[in-house]
Amino acid sequence: MSESSPNFSNRFPFYGPQGRLVLVDSALEAVSRGSTTIGIKTPKFAIVSSQIKPTHPLIEPSEKIFSIDFHAGATGSGYIGDILQLIDTLRLEAQRHRLTYETPIDTDSLAKHLSTFLHNYTTYAVRPQAASIILAGADQTGIQLYQVDPSGTFFRGSGFAIGQSSETALDVITKEYSADMTQEKAIELGKKAIEKALGEKPVVETGIVTQSSFRKLPLEKE
What is the pTM of this model? Predict the structure, then answer.
């Protein structure tokens, strides 16, 4: 059966003309319309920050920074329902590892588990999770920072930005990043990157991972 046959496209709806996964591209487009979200890592700590989008005055805003275990935290951009499912997936894997081995799970294993979970959605005719996750953690290898996308692709690095105008936010981080910056400087850089991306002063929620713990900072409303 030729690729031009109508039955071929009905049976194999996954790939576009350039061989790209159509549903994954749609999920990434949804992520690009989500809250501007960043992660910054130094050898001593990592921060994850996300814009809290305005809601109706009578509705409390959605939580954007999540504890995974005492040594790891995460944030995400995209559909909030999908973000919450991925956070629960990470928490469950962290608890399963702790119950089995009586030790905290390393950050790399968490990222790879989430990558496999997301990749499975790309092999069947189901909607991929429309969310990207930035994961920060501390383990025997030090402080680690990962980005995991809807395709299951994951990256490790010192700075990430996802969501609305993420390229602008990442450009700000890249230009001003320093491995010896203080926590206060990193937090301000994260807020500056999000503000630059949005063109306005946002409400930002932030979490910090150190070698001893993960903690979420009190929300400061502008």
Answer: 0.89
